[in-house]
Amino acid sequence: MNVPKIKFDSNVNNININNMIENIIDGMYDWVRVIDLDDNIIYVNKAMAKALNENVIGKKCYKAFGRDVPCENCVSRATIISGQPQQQEELIQDRIYSVMSSPIKDNDGNIIAVVEVLRDITEMKKLQKEITNQNKKLKSELNMAKKLQYSLLPKEIPNDKIGFSFIYKPCDILGGDFLDIFEIDTDHIGVYIADVSGHGVAASMLTVFLRSSIDKTVISPAAALKKLYKEFNDNYSDQDLYITIFYAIIDISNNILVYSNAGLNVSPIVLNPYSKSFELLRVPGIPISNWVENPSYMDKKLIFQKGDKLFLYTDGIVELKNSKNEQFGEDRLVNVLHGNTESSNIILDQIINAASEFAGVEKYSSFMDDITMALLEVKTFKD
User: Residue 173: which domain range?
Assistant: First the structure.
């Protein structure tokens, strides 16, 4: 069957439209062929003719590729049956091709032939496979890093002296938030909460640095932060990232809380649900960074009253926004805490529920930042 050429009249520089179209098709890198309704090849472009290195005009479409029988899932046959363009991948001479088949119709709308465009996607498929394998490897390594980071969270808490509950929910696989609690000696408990700028692997590695480098022997939080700053600059002076951290030490023998801050932009809270009192622990301090040569940190003291609890948190919870672009904020947080006599676990869960309801999202879903909170209460309070 001969496919009639489409003729156009053109007055633009006497261009022959049919020749121009044929030149365009012959200039294509992709293979192009036309197949009649009996599976015979009636046209191939130069790229395909050169690649096959033989005259395939008049041959069955499948024989041109060294096959004896029609393809089981023939894309062109599907086009003839459906009248619609079809696409699939085919293995041809050990190469992978994307085959797009479209109908050619006469003036009455009857299908008289099919045009196939074959694009060699072998290298693209190899690249896709390499990317997939790399992604699998990266995901596996990230999951290992996640397990490592979670393994560093508090486990051996001095439960006979301190009641301690926390929530740690990174917004990505790896988080930039971190917290820890530990026994310094029989009378002193150290606790800190930190927020590393950014997320991902680099931020998570700094949380590992933080846990291993903070001095857990000195009784002064300010002195410990000073040493941590120096350690950071000895090892990470070229880092663009920085660490903000609030560090407190509780003297359980004298009911004294000593605390210092290295740039954490929220204020931990000491609250008493029975007296309904609370105090924001505000104290300035430079983040653990390479910003200045000799930072200054200060210790502040607070006398613990019976029933007092220390609430620690990072900015992820208070900066959570609703549809009006309003933040959950410190006031709403304090309202949940104020006068709440529930157990620590329940209080933390109530905060998450209130924040999720405020933002109009499901619990923990669509949180754009790490969510880290902790609630601490001294069990061995001395009158």
Answer: 153-378
